[in-house]
Fold this sequence. Notes:
Largest sheet: 7 strands, mixed
Strand content: 15-25%
Low-confidence stretches: none
Structural class: alpha/beta
Strand order of the largest sheet: 14-11-10-7-6-5-15
CATH superfamily of the largest domain: 2-enoyl-CoA Hydratase, Chain A, domain 1
Number of domains: 2
CATH topology of the largest domain: 2-enoyl-CoA Hydratase, Chain A, domain 1
Number of strands: 15
Number of helices: 10
Amino acid sequence: MANDLILKVKQEGGEPVEIIDWRINDAVKIIRGKKGTKVTLTVRKPDGSVKNITITRDVVVLEETYAKSLILHDQDNVKTGYIYLPTFYADFQNPRGRFSWKDVKVEVEKLKATGIKGIILDLRNNGGGSLDDVVKMGGLFIDQGPIVQVKEKGRQAQVLEDRYPGAEWDGALVIMINEFSASASEIMAAAMQDYGRAVIVGSSSSHGKGTVQRFLNLNQTLRNKNLPDLGSVKLTIQKFYRINGDATQLKGVNSDVVLPDNYMYIKTGENENDHAMAWDQISSSKYETSPLDAHNKAIKKSQARVKKNETFNLIQENALRWELQREINTFPLSLEAYKAQEVKEKKEGEKYEALNKIIINGFVVRNIPSDLALINGEESRVKRNEEWIKGIAKDPYVYEALQIIEDLN
Length: 409
């Protein structure tokens, strides 16, 4: 998970090797290994707890980094499409390669063919990526118009827009974010929020990374080619702005419906960095918003549900416990007192073990029929797909997004 720290690596039948302060390439060498063998990672979680996680090695499949989709519904039988997008990827070296906006378009088309009533776009933990792809992807959900503004110091803002009339999907739309959704994810969520096209669901706000960087090779400035490599310097050259004129820097995108999560009290955003660039505003672009009556009703219903939901209340309690544990910086020197403290903390944590055994009755998660031939063609693909479906079926965040889709219809 994000913010986990790997402390040790243990080979099957061997002794743990401490890898703190190792170079990443050296650490990867001992974490990787022969398919089918096991490796145990000792990991420190953000709340300070230390866990051993045993992993059976397998081939790393790039398919897992691409957009993919499922069909969801519950007893109300409002069939909804779910699209998972890990990054805004693009193959700049190959025009025929994989591009995230094209893949999402394909998923939308497949979902539409099944008769869905809404789409959930999951951008949780999506750190961003290709600016061109997010602009084109935004165009899948609006008729046409601006998606984002990009501005350099001392210059007029450049408006990047979808110039093609018609939307691939103009029905109910929910976008899921969290505190690790950054950059292009924030552009997408902000644009759909400004147009009134989507209900944004998740953490109180996204990461707040609204700047553009570029690496400059310092050796290019030298006339004497016999000097040693001077490396590169990373410069911030531009800032992103929403189409309403607000920067996404620092503030990120605020969710319409805030869902408690384990990191809600832990400071993780861009505003926690030293010397982060300030938030500011520029002039708004010209764009037309959709009527928000249906959205506002759905948002109020969702907020009421979340307030009463036992799982979300338990998650919020656990998040507060994590933060309080992180703040502890004194420990007893007496061995007996230290053991007693560990027993007390373990007992307190037992209450929250139910969060690992969530069962959502009536929640149906299944593949698009047209995907089954490809999935069933490989044993490892079948296993990964089963694990993915099992995880979504226990995800209270996705289930609440489904309820919002139902309220929008």
